[in-house]
Structure formats: C-alpha cells, structure tokens
Write a structure and sequence with these properties.
Structural class of chain A: alpha/beta
Structural class of chain B: alpha/beta
Number of domains of chain A: 1
Strand content of chain B: 25-35%
Oligomer: heterodimer
CATH topology of chain A: TIM Barrel
Strand content of chain A: 15-25%
CATH architecture of the domain at 13-114 in chain B: Beta Barrel
Chain lengths: 312, 294
C-alpha cells in the first residue's frame, strides 16, 4: 500500500468549490461514510478535504428491503434506498457532531420535488457547520430518484430554484445512466451549480440463476467500485470538457493512481466511495500521497494537473 | 422510525482496529468447514463471544469487500496472554473458497472486534444454544465463558456462570458437524439432529429444543443459524416465557455501520418497526424484538 511521504514536496492542494475552499481535493462519498461518527475510531478526519454524510431526505425513509448489497466482480451492487431519519433528525442529532469535525462538511440532500429540495436547502442554508450542499439527483434506487438527473431542462430548473433559496455552494451529483452526461453537466451549470460531481452508481442487475431471483431486495440496483472506474473517467472527462465549473470525480477510486487518473481527466476534487467499506483510511492516505504525485508531473499545485489529459 | 433512541447506534466500532494478521494455521473440521487461526494479539485481547470480525484478502479486487465471521475462540501464547483468534468458516462464496488456499505465514486483513456480542443473563442456570449449520460458531467461546473455562475481553469480563450448558446442533448430515470436540471441551452437553438421520435425532434441531423446554428447566436460549430456525426458536421460547437471544447474519459491506446494508426489521417501543443495522445494533438481538413477519 501507499506510504505516507515523510517529507512531502511543497505542493498547494487547495481547491475552490464556489466560495468553499477545501484544504485538499480528497473527499469521502455520500453513503459510504455513514454520518462520520461511525468512523470516529478509525479515521483522522482532519486529513480529509471534506466529508459527505449519507443523503438525507425531508421525511424519514425506511429504505429498501434487504438484501441491500451484493458483491459482483470487483464491484458492489447496492439498493439501500436512501434509508435515513429525515432532515429534522439530521439537524438535531447528526449535524452537531459533523459540524464539530476539523474538515469541510458537504451535506447531501435528495427530494422528490423541487419544493422538497428548495425547502431542505433553505433550512440547511443557515445551519452552522454546513459548508456546501450536494444535490443527489442521481439515486437509481428510489422512485423518482433520478427525475432531475436525466432531463437537462428539469435539472437546470431545479438548480435555479435551489440557487434562489440557498447561498451555499451547490454541487449537482450526476448519474451516468444518461446518453449525454455533458448535457446534464451543462444544464446544472446553467442553473447555477458551483460544481458537478459524478458518477453516482451505474444502473445494474445481479441474479442468482438457480433461484431465478435478483440478488437485491429491490430488484435493480446501482453498481459501484473498481469495475465502474473506466465509465466514471469517461464521464468526468466529458463533463470537464463541457463546463467551466469544477468537476468532482467519483467512481471506483481505490488508490492514489486512481485519484490521479481522475485529476488528469479534469476532476478538481475526488470522492472515495466503496473503498471506504474495506479501507476507511484510504482517503486520508491518498491525500497524504498527493503532493509527491503532483510533483511527479512537474507541478507545484494540484489544480495545475487537473485536466492535463491529452486526448488523441 | 429512528435508527436508535440517541444519535448513535449503541455498538459503534470505537475500539476496533484494522490489522494485517498472519495466518498461524488452518485445519479442516468437517465437510467444507475449516478453522483458521490468525495472529492478532490486540484483537484476541479485546473480543468477546458473539462479536465478529471482518476478513479480507489484501490487495485483491475480487473479492473486493470484507466478509463477517463470528469469533470462534481466542488462543493464548505461552505466557498466557491472548495471541490468536480462531474463525471457523464454511465454503460458501468467493472469499471462503479462497481461504483454504492461503497458508501459514500469509496475511489477511482483519478488522474488529465488531458488534455487541452475547451478554448472558445474570441468573441463567441452564443455558441452551440452538445452532443450525455454520451457526454453531459463536457458541464455543460462549460455552467456555458460561462454564468458567475461559474469560474474554479487556479487562476480562465477568459473566455469571451457568450450572448447565446444552448445545442443540442441527446439520444436513453427520459429515457437516464441525467442532464437536471443542464443544465437549467447553463443557457442553451436546444434542444433535441431522436432516438425514446419519447422526442423532432424524429431524429438526428445534425438535430437540422442544423436548428440553418440556422436560428441563431452561433459563436462557441463544440461537444462530438459518432464519426460519431462529424464528421458530423465538416463537417457542416466547410461548414458554424463556429469554432468548438471536445472533443474526446479514449481508454486510463494511461491518462498521457506514453502509446501511445489513439491516433487519426491529420492533420499536412506540409500535411499528424500523430497519436496524446488524453490525452496530447487533448482531445479537433479544428474539422478541425481531419483526420476523416483515
């Protein structure tokens, strides 16, 4: 595994997402890090660029029936179904702890309507400790979860409405399950997003042929993990070509090399997701190893390596 | 539909660690069933019966995630300090099929101790374990603890001792019965049921429990195995008003409360039910709390 560099080269790792300045570009993806409290005994939060707790919805949701996850070749199928206790419980029970952590806090929200999104964004706008919002318009596992993630017009309108009610930096989390991810990124930018993050999971199915059953209680699920990384790199590259706002890369990052691949494809920041499940300190180790990797490309700033990919 | 009364699940892995643990030895216990011994002194010192660990092959991307395994037992070094952790596994999926090929000296990633484990009631005179298939694994250490043969945890926890411990153990056939000498050494009275009658009672393991509930003073039942079996045990003990705990096994991605995969429907005090995470709110639950019908 990677070793923490003892004498890291002087490299500027800061990243700006709208008005938010991240200490470094390594974030942990929503849904893979609980509400951070679960990881307290294992992770040094101060080494992370930021934390995205599990997506919250306005009302509590029980989530999907189990089994909710199943492993596939180098990947994980999931259909958790946004199991959460709702916004009010988050504000009273989860946020105080999250806000106390020495890193940036980006709260992931999902709504079934523009009204639900704007209401939640409005309430979180003034909440102490919330540094930015990620709008989850790409959850494949709930009814209506991708309504705003597959239509550019609806995506743009959602961002516009949320923008008008909320001063926080807004990140639109996009789905790969569209024909033109670049158009979705452009729509988010046009609506006022400060960044786009991608990809959410790839719509997928796992089966047990002997029982003639799906592996998941929900039937269909979303695929994550190393097996989706090439899809994610393609999407990140396409989105980065299409917009001038920062792109945050997500999808199967499980090593320093993976993180750097996303950077050169145009990711200003990255989110470690599925790997948190088996290696919760991976994200902080990647962050510690970035200076040397950036220096290897002859750069002194992380942002100078972002988008360096030369396509034929 | 709150995950718990407070903001935290009760058994978050605040004292768990991640280790590269060397394999000390492996041996076959029964058909498709192996015991692996890992050198993990810190883990061995901390873990208590009914808790579990996650195991993973380092550097592999397939299988990618860890898998949960109950503690089988801990082993001391020559100086009497906990040094090794024993896990008993059944060949079932990708990871377990790889494990027998790993030899002594190679390393596995292990994290734990995880989950709550068993907390035996203070007045259990006669404790009965009902195990189905590979569900027998958590009961060796628990039997040793209840019969005063070994202590677990740091500091070693105090458990009031039972005067009698009975294991009702059901398997498909005799060749699948694993670790019987260990249960004998742990002081268990062993009763066996097999589906094919190749050893012990020809029928369900729950028949053995029914007989015990009829003829003996059973104070406490703990069960682990197939869900149908556990639901039946829960129903039988509820009818007799005998306390019962179930140790659940659910598909898990992380084991530490982050992924919300391993949920089970648990009844709530105010009525209704909600999904709870087996890894940080279990895996051991009072049987009457599980909403089996959901």
């Amino acid at each position: 595994m990677m070793e923490t560099t003892t004498d890291p080269p002087a490299v500027d790792l800061t990243v700006s997402i709208g008005s938010l300045s991240l200490a470094n570009p390594v974030l942990v993806a929503s849904g893979t890090f609980g509400y951070a409290r679960e990881l307290a005994g294992l992770v040094d939060f101060s080494l992370l660029g930021g934390i995205l707790p599990k997506t919250i919805t306005r009302e509590p949701r029980k989530g999907n029936p189990p089994p909710r996850t199943a492993e596939t070749t180098a990947g994980l199928l999931n259909a958790i179904g946004l199991d959460n206790d709702g916004l009010e419980h988050f504000l009273t029970h989860r946020l105080p702890y999250l806000a106390s952590l020495p890193t940036s806090l980006i709260v992931s929200i999902a709504g079934r309507s523009i009204e639900e999104f704007t209401e939640m964004a409005g309430e979180l706008d003034g909440a102490a400790g919330v540094d930015a919002l990620e709008l989850n318009i790409s959850c494949p596992n709930v009814s209506g979860g991708v309504d705003y993630g597959v239509s550019p017009a609806r995506c743009e309108e959602l961002l516009r409405q949320v923008r008008s009610r909320c001063h926080l930096p807004l990140i639109a989390k996009l789905t790969p399950n569209v024909t033109r991810v670049d158009e979705m990124a452009r729509a988010a930018e046009a609506g006022g997003a400060d960044a786009v993050s991608l990809i959410n999971t790839v719509s997928a199915l796992g089966v047990d042929w002997r029982r003639c059953r799906s592996l998941l209680g929900n039937g269909l699920g979303g695929l994550s993990g190393p097996s989706i990384k090439p899809i994610a790199l393609r999407c990140v590259w396409q989105a980065a070509q299409a917009v001038s706002i920062p792109v945050i890369g997500i999808g199967g990052i499980s090593s320093l090399d993976d993180a750097m691949e996303f950077a050169v494809c145009g990711a200003s920041a990255i989110q470690v997701g599925t790997a948190n499940y088996y290696d919760p300190t991976l994200a902080q180790r990647i962050a510690a190893s970035l200076p040397a990797a950036v220096a290897e490309l002859g750069a002194h700033k992380w942002m100078d390596v972002v988008g360096k990919l030369q396509m034929p | 539909m709150r995950k718990s009364g407070s903001e935290d699940a009760p058994f978050l892995p605040d004292h768990a660690g991640f280790w590269q643990a060397e394999i000390v030895e492996q041996c076959r216990l029964a058909r498709d069933t192996y015991r692996i011994r890992l050198h993990a002194p810190e883990l061995a010192a901390l873990i208590t019966p009914g808790q579990f660990v996650m195991l993973r092959c380092p550097e592999l991307r397939d299988p990618l995630l860890g898998r949960p395994f109950a503690l089988y037992d801990t082993i001391d070094d020559r100086d009497g300090r906990p040094a090794h952790v024993d896990i008993v596994y059944l060949l079932k999926g990708k990871l377990t099929h790889l494990l027998p090929k790993r030899s002594a000296g190679q390393e596995l990633e292990v994290w734990g101790p995880l989950g709550n484990g068993f907390v035996p009631p203070s007045r259990a005179q006669h404790a009965v374990f009902v195990a189905g298939g590979i569900g027998q694994t958590p009961f060796v250490a628990l039997a040793k603890e209840l019969t005063g043969r070994r202590r677990y945890g740091r500091p070693p926890r105090v458990v009031s001792q039972a005067t009698k411990v009975t294991l009702c153990y059901g398997a498909r056939s005799a060749e699948w019965l694993a670790g019987l000498p260990d249960f004998e050494a742990a002081g268990c009275d062993i009763r066996i049921a097999t589906d094919d009658g190749s050893r012990g009672h020809h029928g369900w393991v729950t028949d053995l429990l029914a007989e015990l509930l009829e003829t003996a003073d059973v104070d406490w039942v703990a069960t682990c195995g197939p869900e149908v079996m556990m639901a039946t045990v829960a129903r039988m003990t509820a009818q007799r008003k005998v306390g019962c705990h179930v140790s659940l096994e659910t598909p898990m991605a992380c084991g530490i409360g982050a992924c919300f995969s391993c949920v089970v429907p648990v009844k709530e005090e105010e009525g209704g039910w909600d999904y709870k995470r087996t890894c940080v709110e279990g895996p051991v639950f009072p049987a009457e709390q599980i909403a089996w019908e959901v």
